[in-house]
């Protein structure tokens, strides 16, 4: 399964809500998937391909090779 190697973000599960007759009456399950990218980054001084979520890329937690 897809998982970020920096923050360990993975798939989460929740409910999809349907609003009918002004009440939340129907709930079905759904999955929230992380936005995983494969990038070449520096790990222990060596370039290596790792799976990283887009949030970690934007925040600068990964040093690209």
Write structural notes for this entry:
With 65 residues, this protein is mainly β. The protein is 9% helix and 54% strand. It has a two-stranded antiparallel ribbon with strand order 1-2. A two-stranded antiparallel sheet has the order 3-4. Strand 3 and strand 4 form a beta hairpin. The longest helix is centred in the last third of the chain and has 6 residues. The chain starts with 11 loop residues before the first strand and ends in a 6-residue tail after the last helix. The model has no long low-confidence stretch (mean pLDDT 89).
Supply database-style keywords:
single chain, 65 residues, mainly beta, two-stranded antiparallel ribbon, 1 helix, 4 strands, rod-shaped
Q: What's the topology here?
A:
Blueprint: E1 12-20, E2 23-32, E3 36-43, E4 46-53, H1 54-59
Antiparallel strand pairs: 1-2, 3-4
Query: Mean pLDDT score, rounded?
Result: 89
Low-confidence stretches: none
End-to-end separation: 25 Å
What is the share of helical residues? Answer: under 10%
Major pleated sheet? 2 strands, antiparallel
What's the total helix number?
A: 1
Secondary-structure element sequence? EEEEH
Taking Cα atoms only, what radius of gyration do you get, to the nearest Å? 17 Å
Tell me the strand order in the biggest sheet: 1-2
Shape designation: rod-shaped
| Total beta-strand segments | 4
What fraction of residues sit in β-strands? over 45%
Number of domains: 1
Which structural category do the helix and sheet elements fall into? mainly beta
């Amino acid at each position: 399964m897809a998982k970020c190697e920096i923050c360990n973000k993975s798939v989460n599960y929740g409910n999809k809500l349907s609003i009918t007759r002004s009440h939340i009456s129907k709930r079905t399950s759904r999955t929230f998937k992380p936005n995983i990218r494969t990038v070449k980054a520096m790990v222990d001084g060596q370039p290596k391909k790792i799976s990283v979520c887009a949030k970690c890329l934007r925040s600068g937690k990964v040093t690209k090779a």
